[in-house]
Amino acid sequence: MKGNVFVIGLGLIGGSVSLAIRNTHHETLITGYDVDHKNLRLAKVLGLIDNEAETIKEGAEAADLIIIGTPVVQAESIIKELAMLDLKDDVIITDVGSTKKGITTMAACLEEKGYTFIGGHPMAGSHKSGAIAAKPHLFENAFYLLTPYEGTPAGQVENLKDWLSGTKANFLVITPELHDHLTGVISHFPHIIAAGLVHQAKNCHSEKQLVSRLAAGGFRDVTRIASSSPQMWRDILLHNKDVILQLMEEWIAQMEQVKHMVQGQEADEIFDYFATAKRFRDDLPVKAQGAIPAFYDLYIDVPDYPGVISEITGYLAQENISITNIRILETREEIYAALVVSFQTESDRKLARDCIQKHTNYETILT
Ligand SMILES: NC(=O)C1=CN([C@@H]2O[C@H](COP(=O)(O)OP(=O)(O)OC[C@H]3O[C@@H](n4cnc5c(N)ncnc54)[C@H](O)[C@@H]3O)[C@@H](O)[C@H]2O)C=CC1
Ligand SMILES: O=C(O)C(=O)Cc1ccc(O)cc1
């Protein structure tokens, strides 16, 4: 597509969307604005945008597509500001926020002025932030949820998908209410539980040192998302209050049930509790992408000697297999250590397993 794109807030998500648009729509001019001037400069230097705007008005009034990439709270005041400007008649305005009901309610003021607002949520990310962390392929294979109004012309939704096609995400159109409920269940509430588990380990004062050492393995994996941005998760919880409170009631009732089973030593019920969870989890599609892309981890049992990491990465590099992360599980004190190497895709993970099996006799495990 041709035209002017204006990105407000060039952080991890706004910057990544901008790069994906740049890679696909070569005749498009992308202008950026960010309250953090250093970050805006960096976005220009890194090639996330073509031009810097001094004000929102300057970039917005010339734009065919406006992307609000700021945290959800700021997005609401930006929507109010945009509604007071003289925007192009057929402009599309979208956002990237993790919650949708509040933002789409606020954006009714844009609809009243005849502008198209389509809520957006690319369901991938990380604990990193700022323009420096932006990647054009961040959303590849992830779900990208869109929440148009009932009256939004279908052509405008298609136009937005076209603009965003470079993300290579899977678009799904749903209502803001359903969005907030689903993301509450699969994303927002799990972040609260992950933080809760970390708090519980942290409060284990007497054996503090031992807890930290033992928690380095599986516990660390289960609580990975507790390392996400506290500001962002504060805003998400404040915005998705009703859904979170309802899920919390259900969770507390469930924990009460488990508590009673344990108090009453109800072995069969406890077994059923785990067996039902196992069945549901084991039946989740392994090959299909979930809402948030999984991490494709390969565990490699390697001898604990200096240079073993470069040996492994060397074999993978020889066969052009890209890795996204590498770390050592530190819980074990024997001579063997587990190296966990993460890949962007399932096929890379399998290629890596074959590569390591070809070059070494180290055991590999796909989880
Ligand atoms: N980080 C993640 O994993 C994901 C985040 N999201 C959503 O994306 C949004 C942005 O998150 P990130 O990119 O991670 O944050 P970020 O902190 O990397 O970027 C936000 C940017 O917005 C700028 N900004 C803040 N207020 C502004 C204002 N009033 N005007 C202009 N610029 C302003 C900041 O300076 C910063 O550069 C949030 O609403 C979040 O809920 C959605 C999916 C994943
Ligand atoms: O990496 C993860 O597991 C995430 O949870 C990333 C994420 C964070 C916020 C979103 O709104 C969507 C995705």
From TrEMBL:
It comes from Peribacillus deserti. Keywords: Amino-acid biosynthesis, Aromatic amino acid biosynthesis, NAD, Oxidoreductase, Tyrosine biosynthesis. It comes from the Bacteria. Belongs to the prephenate/arogenate dehydrogenase family. InterPro entries: 6-PGluconate_DH-like_C_sf, ACT-like_dom_sf, ACT_dom, NAD(P)-bd_dom_sf, PDH_C, PDH_N, Preph/Arog_dehydrog, Prephen_DH. The keyword NAD applies. GO terms for biological process: tyrosine biosynthetic process. It is an enzyme of class 1 (oxidoreductase). NCBIfam families: PRK06545.1-5. This is Prephenate dehydrogenase. Coiled coil: none annotated. Residues 297-367 form the ACT domain. Pathway: Amino-acid biosynthesis; L-tyrosine biosynthesis; (4-hydroxyphenyl)pyruvate from prephenate (NAD(+) route): step 1/1. Transmembrane segments: none annotated. Residues 3-292 form the Prephenate/arogenate dehydrogenase domain. Its EC number is 1.3.1.12. It catalyses: prephenate + NAD(+) = 3-(4-hydroxyphenyl)pyruvate + CO2 + NADH. GO terms for molecular function: NAD+ binding; prephenate dehydrogenase (NAD+) activity; prephenate dehydrogenase (NADP+) activity.
